[in-house]
Each structure stands twice: as structure tokens, then as C-alpha cells.
Design a protein that fits this description.
Oligomer: single chain
Largest sheet: 11 strands, mixed
CATH topology of the largest domain: TIM Barrel
Bound molecules: iron/sulfur cluster
Number of strands: 14
Order of helices and strands: HHEEEHEHEHEHEHEHHEHEHHEEHHHEEH
Number of domains: 3
CATH class of the largest domain: Alpha Beta
Length: about 450
């Protein structure tokens, strides 16, 4: 295992990664910055406060012709076949409308259209195949008058609808009832903590807390599963992580996971913070909040498992999702209100070593000696095909960064966002293959790390 010092001084490593992924970055004081030139300006974007974590996150990632430097993706011709075979999560931004004006919003103003038409949605559904998780995104998807019709269309196409929402409309019980009736089983709800001033600071409205708590109650009552999605800004709510985790664990009957992202200076970002958090900072905070259960080592080992499984299963033409390098997706479980590892760190390491060294016979023996591991591993693999396969009490912690210019770059990612379909070729409008940023330059550190 390489040490931090050797990584810092390993210019060869840096050059290798730069040419592998086509990105330019610098390491200074253990921090990793992406360097981007736009006109005559140089931009430095903080990727990681922990260079070792950054490099380890990249191990095993590879760039493919489908890797995208931009957030969104407009599929053309052959892409649909790839999506049909490989992708399991499709993000559909269906509207620019929103009933909030969050100070940290990076989404709604960036959409190049007001609304995705029903015909466009039908067109996507007809092309992507079945059993995909469709994340309805915005803006705020619940503002569409035809949201129930859209959910039904997705159900009818044998795909699985999920709404990513700020939850304000879900404070209305009758609205949640209609969501349930139209077939929604899962909601991703933005929820940043339990103090009103957090919402004042991040979302521009302290009243959101009350409405979101009501939304949670309604979702619990109608037995709709919830992922919390929490944005953490230093000096605003970093001390709230422990409360969020405890709350989610206590309510594991309907809260099945938490996505935690550091607030990213991208898009609007109208707040001032002294220090930018990166994914490794969030893991360190989670380590404290989980009494040492969620560690960088565990998160990275789980990620390695995904990479290894993808490598092995791809030999049988089965694609196993790895997510982007900047996302990690760690499975845990809740027993008696306590968070536990779904697979122990030792087992993770053991399985990873056997797969990486191609010692499949040893792996088999290892499995035979650990029947519980067989069950857990199988349900983990089967989750690709059936999200219920993990059984009850599973708790998912997803970490990453909301958006960076690198978010989807060097991986065979699993989750893609499809924007409104266009008759133009992708390259005319989008830069996903040639690598230029389509979005406005990120607003940070134009003077560079000093
Ligand atoms: S972050 Fe979400 S809820 Fe807030 S303004 Fe943007 S789209 Fe609306």
C-alpha cells in the first residue's frame, strides 16, 4: 500500500493519472485541486482535503467512451443499447420549476429547458428497457401537475420511480396519499438537520424544517421508504451529522439510508463558508458519529468490492454498478437501533484480496466457512436486479460530492442523467466526449491554492 508521502512526491503517479483520465490537478499541502483553464483565467477547484483518500478512491476506476465530464448526458444512437444493458439508475430532470430558492442550488438554473414533455419521457422509457430506477429530478418534480401521470407511466414501463424532492409539498397529507396511490415506493428527501437556522442559511427559509418534518411523518404513515439527502456546509451544520445519523437509524422502519454531500461551490452558492468540506471530511465526521464504524478504510474497501465484482461479473456480461469515483455507496444494517457492518471489514478485505489475486478456489473455501457471508454477498449482488433483495434493516450511506466537473469522469458509472432529447448530435450541444466544461465556470479560488 502506498504511503501518503510517497503519493505526494510521486510525480510519475500524478502524470500517469493525468494522462489516464485527462485531468489536470495539483497537490498542495495534502489537498488535491483540479486545475481548469477558461479563457485567460485559471481555476482551481478543491477536490479533496486528503490526497491519500483521493488516490485510493481512484484506484480501479477507468475512463470509458461513456465517461462524462459534464453532469448530464444526451444519448445518441448506440448509447441507448449501452444504457439498456448497463445502467440501473436514470436521472430525469423533468422541470426547472421550484418552490424554493435555495442559496446552495446548483440545479434548476442550469437546465436548458423549462420542462421535459410527456412525449420525451415516453421516448426515454421506451428506449431504456426495464427494472431501472428512475429518479425524477428538477427543480422540484412535485410541482408538475402531471406528476402522478408520470409516475404511472414509469410503473407501466416496468421501471421503478423515485422522486428527489425538497419535501415542501409532501407536508400535505393528501398529496402524499396520491403519490402512494400512483405507485411511489421511494422518495429522496433533502434534509439538512434539525435547527431552523440551518434552513435559513442553506435554503433561505427557516420554515422548511417544519414542512419537512411533516413530510417525513406523512411518508412514514403511508409506508413510503425514504433516503435522506443532507448537504453539509462547514460552520452551518457539520455538527448535525450525528443527529441525522441517529434520527435515520431510529426510524429505520421507513428511512433506509442517508446521502451526505459537502456543500459544493457550484451554481448559485450564495453562502460564505470559511472552509470547504470534501468527501473525506464527511467520512471523518461520520466516523465520530458512528463510534468508529464508518471509516475511510471501510468506505474504500466497500468501493473496492464493487470494482472487483464489476470486473468478475463483466466476464459473464453482467455489469455491476460502481458509481463514479467521487461517490461511494456503503451498506450497513440496523439491529436493535444500532448500526452494524453489513459485511465485516475483515471479510471485505479477504474477499477483495482473493478476487484481486484471482484465488477463486480460496474464495470458495472462505465462503463455505462463512455461510452468513454467502447470504450477505449474494443479496448484495442480487440487489442489482431487485432492490428489495437485501431484506429489512439495511441502511445505505452514500457519500460524495454533489457535483464537480469530475463527478462522472473516470468510471464506468452506473447513474446517468438524461436531459431532454435533442435532434442535434450530442457533440454540438454537449461536451461530454471532448472534455470541455459546458457549465459556467465554478466559482472558487480563482487565485489558486496559496
Ligand atoms: S436545491 Fe432543489 S429545492 Fe432548492 S432551489 Fe434548487 S432545485 Fe429547488
Amino acid at each position: 500500500m502506498r504511503t501518503l508521502t510517497s503519493l505526494k512526491e510521486d510525480t510519475l503517479e500524478k502524470e500517469k493519472l493525468t494522462s489516464k483520465f485527462g485531468i489536470d490537478f495539483i497537490i498542495k499541502n495534502n489537498q488535491v485541486y483540479l486545475v481548469k483553464k477558461n479563457d485567460s483565467l485559471k481555476y482551481y477547484f478543491l477536490l479533496e482535503n486528503d490526497s491519500e483518500y483521493f488516490f485510493k478512491s481512484l484506484l480501479g476506476c477507468k475512463k470509458t467512451k461513456y465517461s462524462s465530464k459534464s453532469w448530464s448526458f444526451i444519448p445518441v444512437k448506440g448509447d441507448w443499447e449501452y444504457i439498456k444493458k448497463k445502467n440501473t439508475i436514470i436521472v430525469l430532470p423533468i422541470t426547472k420549476m421550484c418552490n424554493s430558492d435555495c442559496k446552495i442550488c446548483f440545479m434548476k438554473d442550469r437546465l436548458p429547458y423549462d420542462e421535459m414533455s410527456i412525449d420525451d419521457i415516453k421516448d426515454v422509457l421506451a428506449k431504456i428497457g426495464k427494472n431501472k430506477k428512475i429518479l425524477l429530478f428538477g427543480g422540484e418534480p412535485t410541482l408538475r401537475d402531471d406528476i402522478f401521470k408520470i409516475i404511472r407511466l414509469i410503473k407501466k414501463s416496468r421501471n421503478i420511480p423515485t422522486i428527489c424532492t425538497n419535501g415542501l409539498k409532501l407536508a400535505d397529507r393528501s398529496f402524499v396519499k396520491k403519490l402512494k396511490e400512483s405507485g411511489i415506493k421511494r422518495i429522496l428527501l433533502s434534509f439538512d438537520g434539525f435547527r431552523e437556522e440551518i434552513y435559513e442559511n442553506l435554503r433561505g427559509n427557516s420554515g422548511h424544517l417544519y414542512l419537512k418534518l411533516r413530510a417525513l411523518k406523512n411518508l412514514k404513515d403511508f409506508k413510503i421508504k425514504v433516503y435522506l439527502s443532507s448537504t453539509i456546509a462547514y460552520g452551518v451544520n457539520e455538527n448535525e451529522i450525528s443527529n441525522l445519523l441517529k434520527f435515520a437509524i431510529r426510524n429505520n422502519d421507513f428511512i433506509i439510508g442517508i446521502n451526505i454531500y459537502p456543500a459544493t461551490p457550484y451554481g448559485k452558492f450564495d453562502i460564505s463558508i470559511k472552509k470547504y468540506l470534501t468527501p473525506s471530511d464527511i467520512v471523518s465526521m461520520l466516523e465520530k458519529a458512528s463510534s468508529g464504524l464508518i471509516t475511510k478504510e471501510y468506505v474504500l474497501e466497500f468501493k473496492r468490492l464493487r470494482m472487483n465484482l464489476n470486473r468478475v461479473l463483466s466476464k459473464f456480461k453482467i455489469f455491476f454498478p460502481c458509481y463514479s469515483y467521487y461517490h461511494s455507496h456503503t451498506l450497513l444494517k440496523v439491529e436493535n437501533n444500532q448500526l452494524k457492518h453489513f459485511i465485516s471489514l475483515n471479510d471485505l478485505k479477504g474477499v477483495n484480496e482473493f478476487i484481486q489475486n484471482r484465488k477463486y478456489l480460496n474464495l470458495l473455501v472462505y465462503f463455505i466457512k462463512n455461510p452468513r457471508l454467502v447470504k450477505n454477498s449474494l443479496s448484495f449482488v442480487l440487489r442489482k436486479f431487485n432492490s428489495e433483495s437485501l431484506g429489512k434493516n439495511v441502511f445505505i450511506v452514500q457519500l460524495g460530492n454533489v457535483i464537480t466537473p469530475l463527478n462522472y469522469l473516470p468510471v464506468e458509472y452506473d447513474c446517468i442523467e438524461i436531459e431532454k432529447l435533442s435532434n442535434n448530435s450530442r457533440d454540438e450541444n454537449y461536451s461530454h466526449l471532448n472534455g470541455e466544461l459546458r457549465l459556467e465556470p465554478f466559482r472558487t479560488l480563482t487565485t489558486g491554492p496559496g
